Known about the structure:
The protein is an alpha/beta fold. The chain folds into 2 domains: 9-158 and 328-346, Rossmann fold (3-Layer(aba) Sandwich); 163-313, Rossmann fold, CATH 3.40.50.2000. Helices cover 37% and strands 16% of the residues. The two termini are 19 Å apart.
Amino acid sequence: MASIDVSEAQTAPVSSPDSRRERLPELARARAWIVTDGKAGDENQCVGIAETLGLAFELRQVPASGPFGWMAPWGPIDPREGPRRRAGALSGPYPDILIASGRRSVPYLRAVRRATGGRTFTAFLKDPRTGADSADFIWVPDYDDLRGPNVFTTLTAPHLVTAARLEAARARPDPRLARLDGPRVAVLVGGDSRHLSYRKTDMIRLVEDLRGLAAQGCRLMVTISRRTPNPLRDAVKALAAETGGFLWDGTGDNPYVAMLALAEAIVVTSDSANMVSEAVSTGAPVLLFDLPRTYIRHRRMFAGLAIAGALRPFTGQLADLTYKPIDATPVIAQALADAYAARRAAGPA
């Protein structure tokens, strides 16, 4: 399947789950599993697709540690998680559709495929590292190299920040954010990863650039990651308090979608392609805080978003950017639905 053009398909109107059921009645009857090792980024992508399709789904979590996890994606499943184990990840009747993500889920997808003789339609999000024939449908971002007749690509990743959730958050603003008395800027701070670590100079630069926004009258709405280094966590918390902003400390309801919905601009760190994908789904200007050792493939995505007029480097100033919200989730969901319908029409391989 061809890559999706960001200026057209990814900004197309989102059809509702109900309308999709009318066009593809098999989905209304389908049972689905979402199989991951519990990593939030992987699970959220799968749930975003399942929800967009209106699927009834169960979350099936496979072990994230131990020798079977170490051998993934090439090794076997943990026998304690097999179909004959009452509490196993593969227990119970097999689903009509299995959506998986993360390398540790690959052996379980493979086991279901083998056990059902292809009757369960399998979809995998991101590169399974075991080839394009590992699932019936595979989505990867444009910057990945995997290609094949069953591989679908888009510029940005699927997620849970839907147009409906953003609209609802704007209609009933979170009072913790509604009280802020200046232009609201959402600040999405990631953290250390296997690709990069925040240096002291990076942390100082980010805090000083954010301080510059606050000095212009902006009110910062900050969310941090479990991966955020403690010195940076402490610094942005102090900055939000000093400048009349807001930082979510993990108490109360998570205001992440509300922050995105109410933001007049969004600052996001370059270590997370997922957060950038969520940010550009809002239509607000996205300001990218660039880290020197940003994963080179992510830079390809950021370049595409800059060309689309959605993103600019963050240098302590706001930018006037106008673009249609960019959301690949409904596009990927539609491609998966089409592939499922084609498989149902043709019968198991």
